Amino acid sequence: MTNSQKKRLEEIEFSVLDLAPVLLGKTPADTFKNSLDLAQNVERFGYKRYWLAEHHNMEGIASSATSVLIGYIAGGTKTIRVGSGGVMLPNHAPLVIAEQFGTLESLYPGRIDLGIGRAPGTDQVTSMALRRNLHGSVSEFPNDVQELINYFAPKEKRKGYVRAVPGEGLNVPVWLLGSSTYSAQLAAKLGLPFGFASHFAPNHLYEALKIYRDQFQPSEHLKEPYALACVNVVAADTDEEAKYLATSLYQMFLGVIRGTSRLLQPPVESMDGEWNEFEKEAVRHQLYFSFVGSKQTIKEKLQKFLDDTQVDEIMVVSYIYDHSARVHSYRILSEIKNEM
């Protein structure tokens, strides 16, 4: 592919992933207010989607009741698409998810996305508390996906006796999300849009994108492959300020490496006293696709990422402790796109 054929940042959509982080000294109620304010701001900035991700039993993440939060955000915005990034389908009966998202689509027509994944979004003990069948085979997930899609089909095309009301006949786009090649293969086979979680799982990004594009089969849902990749972005007026703000992100993933769940921590002047060399490298590896810096720095690094991946859409998650700085980071990113 020649340089003239490669995508430019101004040609693709930017979107937002929100895990509803709970800040140190704050409550989930504060988090939800911040999420709505962020959604309203990024809507004005021109972002395409605002997705929330299902997690459970994590002190610092308040997005467990994902469909409820989607309704809250959609109700407080006007044009931006709102959805899940994603709902962890093995935790739920497909019918229940079809009914929930059918309800959301009925309330906010043309604005709801349903991104689904096959991970539990939590630990095994919590998975059992969610009544998730831990003994089922991987083959159940494709069947569950197809069952879910069937519930949205028009009455004349739907298979089976059970109906999703509301849900039946509604156009709720279903995305497959993943951090490995598994969902890429399934999305290609079913002709669905695909999102890759490169913001925390960088290893298989390029392989998954290649598999998805090479194996894609057109469907009634999608005629050509459409791939989204999620990355971490911390943008500020200067590189130095961005690096300082990014220490909250590093502390969060340090907790992941250590197997501890903490509220999102304020930034620190230096991470030197926070981690050892092994932990530092582990965090850096997991956050390989993270872009930290001023507008110009982010612009150059993100364009390089787009050159390498040729994704159709970039989704951004920003773990920044100060809410105003978080909003400003998304503003800077939108300016990069709009000024080119």
UniProtKB/TrEMBL annotation:
Domain of life: Bacteria
Residues spanning the signal sequence: none
UniProt-recorded Gene Ontology molecular function terms: lyase activity; oxidoreductase activity
Keywords: Lyase, Oxidoreductase
Keyword Chloroplast: no
Top-level enzyme category: oxidoreductase
The enzyme's E.C. designation: 1.-.-.-
Domain Luciferase-like: 14-306
UniProt cross-references to InterPro entries, sorted A to Z: Bact_Lucif_Oxidored (IPR050766), CmoO-like (IPR019949), Luciferase-like_dom (IPR011251), Luciferase-like_sf (IPR036661)
Record's keyword annotation contains Metal-binding: no
Pfam families: Bac_luciferase
Matching PANTHER family: LUCIFERASE-LIKE MONOOXYGENASE
Family, as annotated: To bacterial alkanal monooxygenase alpha and beta chains.
Protein's UniProt name: LLM class flavin-dependent oxidoreductase
The organism of origin for this protein: Aeribacillus composti
